[in-house]
């Protein structure tokens, strides 16, 4: 079975990118970050304007939701690094380049809206948030994968994971304004996922063995782009125990739906290398299922103990 070079893949998939870009532009809804921020709730902070210093009591949003909001915003903050990575992987020519810039422009709204909302509503400590932003952006982000197909496979899962995280964070906030904003952001992420997912579907038709290898490599090593946030492991555990985003959701709402869409376990026409990759993927998914089930059992037992003590 023929193996395509990276240059050939970019060239062969360019018409698909053009078609998906046209579909995206027709489906995308124009929206404005300032319309989702309750500006009348704002007041001066301490400092130059001698207002009130931030206090934990300024917001009624639960702690786990605030932690998730911070993780989500800091992840969005690293957009310059993400832009560099996809521009390097996809190039800036023809439809590829148009998409890279369109995607970046849409993603930029998310950080703007989230920061304005959190600052105006005093949901988080703005000083700690700014220090965390400086630290996280100072570390940057580097794509762990090389090649067009690996990059497309990664963002197919990552965009959907981000959508789920935003939606569940909004629900956990118990704040209708916050939930409305995060639902709007999640809608953008869903359209981005559709773009990449459909693009990889075309790659499966063009180079099935290479596409399967890319999917297997990404699924078995997947990490969210916010992994480099200081204290991420502890924050991720709090988020997982709150049910905002955990391994069970990662399997059921992210991995399985995308893999079913590509029909990877029934796909015909794979060569020996593709079959080997598919076997690796199936074995990994089985192990992941066991781990997720154990986590849910431990979490339920922990919640039962806490309820008993209460």
Automatic annotation (TrEMBL):
One of its GO terms (cellular component) is cytosol. Fe cation 2 binds at residues 107, 159, 189, 192. The keyword Transport does not apply. InterPro entries: Fatty_acid_desaturase-2, Ferritin-like_SF, RNR-like. CDD domains: Acyl_ACP_Desat (cd01050). Gene3D superfamilies: Ribonucleotide Reductase, subunit A. Keywords: Fatty acid biosynthesis, Fatty acid metabolism, Iron, Lipid biosynthesis, Lipid metabolism, Metal-binding, Oxidoreductase. GO terms for molecular function: metal ion binding; stearoyl-[ACP] desaturase activity. Binds 2 iron ions per subunit. Its cofactor is Fe(2+); Fe cation. Fe cation 1 binds at residues 76, 107, 110, 189. One of its GO terms (biological process) is fatty acid biosynthetic process. Pfam families: FA_desaturase_2. Its EC number is 1.14.19.2. Homodimer. Belongs to the fatty acid desaturase type 2 family. This is Acyl-[acyl-carrier-protein] desaturase. It comes from Streptosporangium becharense.
């Amino acid at each position: 079975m023929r193996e395509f070079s990276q240059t050939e893949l970019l060239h062969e998939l360019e018409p698909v990118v053009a078609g998906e870009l046209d579909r995206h532009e027709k489906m995308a809804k124009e929206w404005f970050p300032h319309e989702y921020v309750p500006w009348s709730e704002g007041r001066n902070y301490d400092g130059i304007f001698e207002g009130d210093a931030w206090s934990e009591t300024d917001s009624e949003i639960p702690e786990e939701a605030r932690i998730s909001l911070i993780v989500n915003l800091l992840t969005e903050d690293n957009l310059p690094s993400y832009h560099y990575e996809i521009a390097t992987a996809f190039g800036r020519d023809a439809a590829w380049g148009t998409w890279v810039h369109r995607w970046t422009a849409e993603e930029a709204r998310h950080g703007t809206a989230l920061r304005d909302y959190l600052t105006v509503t005093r949901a988080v400590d703005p000083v700690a948030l700014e220090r965390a932003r400086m630290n996280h952006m100072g570390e940057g982000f580097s794509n762990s994968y090389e090649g067009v197909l690996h990059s497309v496979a990664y963002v197919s899962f990552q965009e959907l994971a981000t959508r789920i995280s935003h939606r569940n964070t909004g629900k956990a906030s118990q704040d209708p304004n916050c939930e409305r904003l995060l639902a709007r952001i999640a809608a953008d992420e869903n359209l981005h996922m559709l773009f990449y997912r459909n693009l990889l579907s075309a790659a499966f038709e063009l180079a099935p063995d290479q596409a399967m290898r890319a999917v297997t490599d990404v699924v078995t090593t997947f990490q969210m782009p916010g992994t480099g946030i200081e204290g991420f492991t502890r924050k991720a555990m709090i988020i997982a125990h709150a049910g905002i985003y955990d391994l069970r959701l990662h399997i059921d709402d992210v991995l399985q739906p995308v893999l079913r869409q590509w029909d990877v376990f029934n796909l015909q026409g794979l060569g020996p290398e593709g079959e080997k990759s598919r076997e690796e993927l199936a074995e990994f998914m089985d192990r992941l299922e066991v781990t997720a089930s154990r986590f849910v059992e431990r979490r339920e037992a922990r919640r039962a103990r806490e309820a008993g003590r209460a």
